[in-house]
Amino acid sequence: MKYIFDFDDVLFRTSKERGHPLFKEYQFSVIEKAGVPMSKILEYYEKERLNQFSLKKILNHFSLPGSLYQEIIAQSKNFINHEVIETVKRLGSSNCIILTYGDNEFQIDKIEQSGIAPLFAKIIPVPGSKQETLEKLCREFKDEQVIFIDDSAKHFENLDPIKCVNLKTILYTGGPLDLSPFV
Question: Could you say which residues of the chain have pLDDT below 50?
Fold first, then answer.
């Protein structure tokens, strides 16, 4: 069995799960402390978030020093979702893959700095839809059940049931991840 995990808001507390520190809020607070009004940060984010938002791009946009990038990224370890990571550890790295949407460098840097990269056989950032990559992974592991865990149902839409006959999807809504029906 192969398990494909989304990164943001599944393995990494980016923006959704309340009651925990969130990376998006943290990075925006550092940018605000550097002198950019929060209203300008949020305006930029809303405009750019669907165009592969990148921390480096926002820092450049506001002419902030590049050293802030490393300062912010270095804190990634504080935003991992320990409940889901414990599940990943039980499944074994050879069975787990990260499939994440976003700016390649930004996603890889967050994953590496969070310390979870060794827990996964593959890390696949995609600049657009996850559909083609999911279908390719289903073909690659055609003799195995493939479980895809994501926090957004839109990533389950439009998947070709013939190309993904071995795929089961789980909509992650927070908290512990129950994979018992699939293990």
Answer: none
Question: Residue 157 is part of which domain span?
Answer: 2-13+80-171
**Which residues, in sequence order, are bridge partners of residue 99?**
124
DSSP code of residue 12: B
In angstroms, the CA 98 to CA 85 distance is 12
The answer to whether the CB of 73 falls within 8 A of the CB of 56 is: no
Show Cβ contacts of residue 120 under 8 Å, excluding neighbours closer than 6 positions: 5, 88, 93, 96, 97, 98
CB-CB neighbours of 68 under 10 Å: 19
pLDDT, tens only, 18-36: 666 799 999 999 999 999 9
Identify whether residues 64 and 146 lie together within a single domain. Answer: no
37 and 107 housed in the same domain: no
